# Entry
Amino acid sequence: MIFSRIFLLFSLFSLAFSLENLNPHLPRPLIIEYPNEVETHFGELNEEVRLQCTSWRFSVEANNLNPWKTIPLECVDYVRDYVTGRGYSIDLRRVSMEAEVYAKSVELSGDGKEAWIFDVDETLLSNLPYYADHGYGLEVFDPAVFDKWVEKAKAPAIEPSLKLYKEVLGLGFKVFLLTGRHERHRSVTIENLINTGFRDWDKLILRATEDHGKLATIFKSEKRREMENDGFRILGNSGDQWSDLLGNPMSARSFKLPNPMYYIP
# Structure
Protein backbone atom coordinates (compact mmCIF):
# COMPACT_ATOMS: atom_id res chain seq x y z
CA MET A 1 0.00 0.00 0.00
CA ILE A 2 2.82 2.41 0.85
CA PHE A 3 4.43 1.67 -2.52
CA SER A 4 1.16 2.42 -4.33
CA ARG A 5 0.84 5.75 -2.51
CA ILE A 6 4.41 6.67 -3.37
CA PHE A 7 3.83 5.74 -7.01
CA LEU A 8 0.62 7.79 -7.16
CA LEU A 9 2.22 10.85 -5.58
CA PHE A 10 5.27 10.56 -7.83
CA SER A 11 3.01 10.40 -10.90
CA LEU A 12 1.01 13.43 -9.82
CA PHE A 13 4.10 15.41 -8.90
CA SER A 14 5.57 14.61 -12.31
CA LEU A 15 2.49 16.04 -13.97
CA ALA A 16 2.68 19.17 -11.86
CA PHE A 17 6.38 19.81 -12.49
CA SER A 18 5.96 19.33 -16.25
CA LEU A 19 3.22 21.98 -16.46
CA GLU A 20 5.43 24.58 -18.09
CA ASN A 21 6.33 22.26 -20.96
CA LEU A 22 2.79 21.18 -21.78
CA ASN A 23 0.83 22.34 -24.80
CA PRO A 24 -1.78 24.68 -23.25
CA HIS A 25 -4.53 22.89 -25.17
CA LEU A 26 -3.58 19.36 -24.07
CA PRO A 27 -4.26 17.72 -20.69
CA ARG A 28 -3.04 19.99 -17.93
CA PRO A 29 -2.64 18.87 -14.31
CA LEU A 30 -5.30 20.40 -12.08
CA ILE A 31 -3.58 19.83 -8.75
CA ILE A 32 -0.32 21.75 -8.52
CA GLU A 33 0.38 21.34 -4.79
CA TYR A 34 0.18 18.10 -2.83
CA PRO A 35 0.86 17.27 0.83
CA ASN A 36 4.49 16.53 1.54
CA GLU A 37 3.77 13.43 3.62
CA VAL A 38 3.96 10.19 1.69
CA GLU A 39 1.51 8.62 4.18
CA THR A 40 -1.37 10.82 2.92
CA HIS A 41 -4.48 8.66 2.84
CA PHE A 42 -5.41 7.41 -0.61
CA GLY A 43 -9.02 8.43 0.05
CA GLU A 44 -7.97 12.00 0.70
CA LEU A 45 -6.19 12.12 -2.66
CA ASN A 46 -9.27 10.73 -4.36
CA GLU A 47 -11.43 13.36 -2.71
CA GLU A 48 -9.04 16.12 -3.77
CA VAL A 49 -9.14 14.92 -7.39
CA ARG A 50 -12.93 14.71 -7.27
CA LEU A 51 -13.22 18.25 -5.95
CA GLN A 52 -10.75 19.61 -8.49
CA CYS A 53 -12.54 17.86 -11.36
CA THR A 54 -15.92 19.11 -10.16
CA SER A 55 -14.49 22.63 -10.12
CA TRP A 56 -13.07 22.11 -13.61
CA ARG A 57 -16.44 20.89 -14.92
CA PHE A 58 -18.17 23.89 -13.36
CA SER A 59 -15.73 26.17 -15.18
CA VAL A 60 -16.46 24.34 -18.43
CA GLU A 61 -20.21 24.80 -18.09
CA ALA A 62 -19.83 28.43 -17.00
CA ASN A 63 -17.56 29.14 -20.01
CA ASN A 64 -14.78 30.30 -17.73
CA LEU A 65 -11.97 28.17 -19.20
CA ASN A 66 -9.61 29.17 -21.95
CA PRO A 67 -10.06 27.10 -25.14
CA TRP A 68 -9.22 23.46 -24.45
CA LYS A 69 -8.82 20.35 -26.58
CA THR A 70 -8.94 17.50 -24.09
CA ILE A 71 -10.13 16.85 -20.58
CA PRO A 72 -7.48 16.83 -17.80
CA LEU A 73 -5.78 13.48 -17.36
CA GLU A 74 -6.79 13.32 -13.69
CA CYS A 75 -10.45 13.68 -14.64
CA VAL A 76 -10.93 10.72 -17.00
CA ASP A 77 -12.61 8.57 -14.35
CA TYR A 78 -14.58 11.53 -13.05
CA VAL A 79 -15.95 12.48 -16.48
CA ARG A 80 -16.72 8.83 -17.27
CA ASP A 81 -18.63 8.42 -14.02
CA TYR A 82 -20.50 11.66 -14.59
CA VAL A 83 -21.65 11.09 -18.18
CA THR A 84 -22.56 7.44 -17.56
CA GLY A 85 -24.20 8.07 -14.19
CA ARG A 86 -27.25 9.74 -12.70
CA GLY A 87 -25.66 13.19 -12.47
CA TYR A 88 -25.58 13.73 -16.23
CA SER A 89 -29.10 12.35 -16.64
CA ILE A 90 -30.45 14.62 -13.91
CA ASP A 91 -28.70 17.66 -15.39
CA LEU A 92 -30.11 16.91 -18.86
CA ARG A 93 -33.61 16.58 -17.43
CA ARG A 94 -33.22 19.82 -15.51
CA VAL A 95 -32.26 21.78 -18.61
CA SER A 96 -35.12 20.34 -20.64
CA MET A 97 -37.63 20.92 -17.84
CA GLU A 98 -36.65 24.57 -17.51
CA ALA A 99 -36.79 25.02 -21.28
CA GLU A 100 -40.23 23.44 -21.36
CA VAL A 101 -41.49 25.76 -18.61
CA TYR A 102 -40.26 28.73 -20.63
CA ALA A 103 -41.70 27.42 -23.92
CA LYS A 104 -45.12 27.03 -22.33
CA SER A 105 -44.96 30.56 -20.95
CA VAL A 106 -44.47 32.12 -24.39
CA GLU A 107 -47.59 33.57 -25.99
CA LEU A 108 -47.24 32.73 -29.67
CA SER A 109 -48.67 35.19 -32.18
CA GLY A 110 -49.95 32.53 -34.54
CA ASP A 111 -48.11 33.90 -37.57
CA GLY A 112 -45.79 30.87 -37.75
CA LYS A 113 -42.66 32.97 -37.27
CA GLU A 114 -41.65 32.04 -33.72
CA ALA A 115 -38.62 29.76 -33.94
CA TRP A 116 -36.75 27.39 -31.65
CA ILE A 117 -33.26 26.22 -32.61
CA PHE A 118 -31.75 22.90 -31.59
CA ASP A 119 -28.15 21.83 -32.06
CA VAL A 120 -27.77 18.13 -32.94
CA ASP A 121 -24.70 16.48 -31.36
CA GLU A 122 -24.91 16.18 -27.55
CA THR A 123 -28.17 18.14 -27.75
CA LEU A 124 -30.59 15.87 -29.62
CA LEU A 125 -28.28 12.95 -30.38
CA SER A 126 -25.74 11.44 -27.98
CA ASN A 127 -22.28 10.48 -29.18
CA LEU A 128 -21.47 8.88 -25.84
CA PRO A 129 -20.85 5.45 -27.45
CA TYR A 130 -18.14 7.06 -29.59
CA TYR A 131 -16.54 8.96 -26.72
CA ALA A 132 -16.60 5.88 -24.49
CA ASP A 133 -14.16 4.35 -26.99
CA HIS A 134 -12.00 7.49 -27.06
CA GLY A 135 -11.31 8.29 -23.43
CA TYR A 136 -14.40 10.38 -22.74
CA GLY A 137 -12.62 13.41 -24.19
CA LEU A 138 -9.03 12.58 -23.22
CA GLU A 139 -8.01 11.89 -26.83
CA VAL A 140 -7.48 14.82 -29.17
CA PHE A 141 -10.47 14.98 -31.50
CA ASP A 142 -9.94 13.22 -34.84
CA PRO A 143 -12.58 14.42 -37.35
CA ALA A 144 -11.94 11.55 -39.78
CA VAL A 145 -12.56 8.94 -37.09
CA PHE A 146 -15.60 10.78 -35.79
CA ASP A 147 -17.04 11.01 -39.30
CA LYS A 148 -16.96 7.22 -39.53
CA TRP A 149 -19.09 7.09 -36.38
CA VAL A 150 -21.52 9.70 -37.76
CA GLU A 151 -21.91 7.70 -40.96
CA LYS A 152 -23.20 4.73 -38.97
CA ALA A 153 -26.28 6.81 -37.99
CA LYS A 154 -26.38 4.97 -34.66
CA ALA A 155 -26.29 7.83 -32.15
CA PRO A 156 -29.10 7.39 -29.60
CA ALA A 157 -31.54 10.14 -28.73
CA ILE A 158 -31.06 12.24 -25.61
CA GLU A 159 -34.44 11.41 -24.12
CA PRO A 160 -35.11 14.65 -22.18
CA SER A 161 -34.30 16.60 -25.37
CA LEU A 162 -36.67 14.42 -27.38
CA LYS A 163 -39.45 15.19 -24.90
CA LEU A 164 -38.70 18.93 -25.13
CA TYR A 165 -38.51 18.74 -28.92
CA LYS A 166 -41.96 17.20 -29.17
CA GLU A 167 -43.36 19.71 -26.68
CA VAL A 168 -41.94 22.68 -28.60
CA LEU A 169 -43.37 21.36 -31.85
CA GLY A 170 -46.74 20.78 -30.23
CA LEU A 171 -46.84 24.34 -28.93
CA GLY A 172 -46.50 25.67 -32.47
CA PHE A 173 -42.86 26.76 -32.69
CA LYS A 174 -41.02 26.40 -35.98
CA VAL A 175 -38.06 24.14 -35.28
CA PHE A 176 -34.68 24.67 -36.90
CA LEU A 177 -31.85 22.18 -36.48
CA LEU A 178 -28.52 23.98 -36.72
CA THR A 179 -25.49 21.72 -36.63
CA GLY A 180 -21.78 21.91 -37.32
CA ARG A 181 -21.95 18.65 -39.26
CA HIS A 182 -20.92 18.88 -42.90
CA GLU A 183 -23.49 18.94 -45.69
CA ARG A 184 -22.21 15.59 -46.96
CA HIS A 185 -23.68 14.02 -43.82
CA ARG A 186 -27.20 15.31 -44.45
CA SER A 187 -28.73 11.94 -45.37
CA VAL A 188 -27.20 9.98 -42.48
CA THR A 189 -28.09 12.77 -40.07
CA ILE A 190 -31.71 12.73 -41.23
CA GLU A 191 -31.75 8.93 -40.96
CA ASN A 192 -30.34 9.04 -37.43
CA LEU A 193 -32.76 11.74 -36.32
CA ILE A 194 -35.86 10.05 -37.72
CA ASN A 195 -34.89 6.64 -36.37
CA THR A 196 -34.59 8.10 -32.87
CA GLY A 197 -37.91 9.97 -32.93
CA PHE A 198 -37.08 13.44 -34.22
CA ARG A 199 -39.42 14.46 -37.03
CA ASP A 200 -41.28 17.41 -38.55
CA TRP A 201 -38.54 20.05 -38.19
CA ASP A 202 -38.85 23.09 -40.43
CA LYS A 203 -35.24 23.13 -41.64
CA LEU A 204 -31.99 21.22 -41.08
CA ILE A 205 -28.95 23.46 -41.55
CA LEU A 206 -25.47 21.94 -41.97
CA ARG A 207 -22.10 23.38 -42.93
CA ALA A 208 -21.76 23.98 -46.66
CA THR A 209 -18.38 24.02 -48.38
CA GLU A 210 -18.10 27.79 -47.96
CA ASP A 211 -18.61 27.41 -44.21
CA HIS A 212 -15.58 25.15 -43.78
CA GLY A 213 -13.06 26.67 -41.39
CA LYS A 214 -15.46 29.13 -39.77
CA LEU A 215 -15.64 29.15 -36.01
CA ALA A 216 -18.91 27.63 -34.85
CA THR A 217 -19.88 30.88 -33.15
CA ILE A 218 -19.55 32.75 -36.45
CA PHE A 219 -21.22 30.06 -38.56
CA LYS A 220 -24.22 29.74 -36.28
CA SER A 221 -24.56 33.49 -35.81
CA GLU A 222 -24.70 33.91 -39.58
CA LYS A 223 -27.44 31.28 -39.87
CA ARG A 224 -29.47 32.90 -37.09
CA ARG A 225 -29.14 36.22 -38.91
CA GLU A 226 -30.51 34.59 -42.05
CA MET A 227 -33.49 33.29 -40.06
CA GLU A 228 -34.21 36.76 -38.75
CA ASN A 229 -33.87 38.22 -42.23
CA ASP A 230 -36.54 35.73 -43.29
CA GLY A 231 -38.84 37.16 -40.64
CA PHE A 232 -38.40 34.56 -37.90
CA ARG A 233 -38.22 35.55 -34.25
CA ILE A 234 -35.84 33.23 -32.40
CA LEU A 235 -37.36 32.68 -28.98
CA GLY A 236 -35.46 29.58 -27.85
CA ASN A 237 -32.11 27.94 -28.52
CA SER A 238 -30.81 24.66 -27.08
CA GLY A 239 -27.18 23.56 -27.40
CA ASP A 240 -24.37 21.85 -25.51
CA GLN A 241 -21.69 24.36 -26.58
CA TRP A 242 -21.51 28.05 -25.82
CA SER A 243 -20.75 28.50 -29.52
CA ASP A 244 -24.28 27.18 -30.18
CA LEU A 245 -25.72 30.02 -28.14
CA LEU A 246 -23.45 33.07 -28.24
CA GLY A 247 -22.92 35.59 -31.02
CA ASN A 248 -25.22 37.98 -32.80
CA PRO A 249 -28.15 37.68 -32.96
CA MET A 250 -29.00 35.58 -29.92
CA SER A 251 -32.31 33.98 -29.05
CA ALA A 252 -34.62 35.44 -26.43
CA ARG A 253 -33.70 32.52 -24.15
CA SER A 254 -30.82 30.05 -24.46
CA PHE A 255 -30.49 26.68 -22.73
CA LYS A 256 -27.05 25.13 -22.25
CA LEU A 257 -26.90 21.35 -21.97
CA PRO A 258 -23.97 19.86 -20.03
CA ASN A 259 -20.97 18.55 -21.94
CA PRO A 260 -17.61 18.06 -20.20
CA MET A 261 -16.17 15.89 -23.01
CA TYR A 262 -15.25 18.46 -25.66
CA TYR A 263 -15.17 22.15 -26.51
CA ILE A 264 -16.02 23.79 -29.84
CA PRO A 265 -15.13 27.49 -30.27
Observations:
- The radius of gyration is 21 Å.
- The beta strands are 114-118, 174-182, 203-207, 233-239, 253-256.
- Confidence is low (pLDDT under 50) at residues 1-22.
- The first strand starts at residue 114 and ends at 118.
